[in-house]
Amino acid sequence: MLYPVKELQDIFADACVRAPGGELAFISVFGRDGAVQQLYASLHLGIQEGGIRQITLLDPDSSQALAVVPVGDPRRLDKYSGRLPKDNLFGNLVHTWIYDESLLNPSKATGSAWLLVDRETQAHDVESLEARTWSLIEQLSPIPLLPHWRKRVLDTLGDQVTGNLDQTSHAPIGRIHASRIVLPDSFGEAISGFVRDGSLGLD
């Protein structure tokens, strides 16, 4: 499904992810090259220069506002664009992702990371999601983790460290499923406790 963007004509989004505080983290948009360039530029311009500070996604059926997404600090946003084949049904279109750079790199300083997957093709692959979640936890962990600890750690601490954004007031819109991995300050102590009580071992 494509959602019209109220602030600019001829721009349509098929996915939008908001940070836990509601600010824009990721949006996937389609449009003519000039319109997409104008959208990205508007995010970085001041209000007096014609800039925008929010993106309003409209319900394609009712044209009513579905979500008003604050932009926040635009300096953290980057973009990646690709051009659709010219012989597609809608003509010469550009597909652009505008995203917070923190989506790409887990932050060991804050103990947090993003996990974004396609809702239609990947969100139901439990094994793949667990593997990717574990990989992020390994990168964030303040202490080394052994591969065979994965099941024990995820079974015991998974609900504490993984937050499904679908269950928040700022749920993703469209085909992207998003989760936040956040290690609590007590994570290292919990792992050490499992080692001491024999729940986790070298073998």
How would you describe what is shown here?
The chain is of the alpha+beta class. 21% of the residues are buried. The strands form 3 sheets. Strands 1, 2, 3, 6, 7 and 10 form a 6-stranded antiparallel β-sheet that branches. It has a 3-stranded antiparallel β-sheet with strand order 8-11-9. It has a two-stranded antiparallel ribbon with strand order 4-5. The protein is built from 4 helices and 11 strands. The mean pLDDT is 92.
Summarize the structure.
The chain is of the alpha+beta class and 203 residues long. It has helices at residues 33-44, 126-140, 150-161, 187-196; strands spanning 3-4, 11-18, 24-31, 54-58, 65-70, 77-83, 94-100, 112-118, 162-164, 173-174, 176-182.
How many structural domains can be distinguished in the coordinates? 2
Low-confidence stretches: none
- The N- to C-terminal Cα distance equals 48 Å
Mean pLDDT: 92
Order of helices and strands: EEEHEEEEEHHEEEH
Residues in helices, as a percent range: 10-25%
Largest sheet: 6 strands, antiparallel
Name the features.
alpha+beta, single chain, three-stranded antiparallel sheet, 203 residues, 4 helices, six-stranded antiparallel sheet, 31% strand, 2 domains
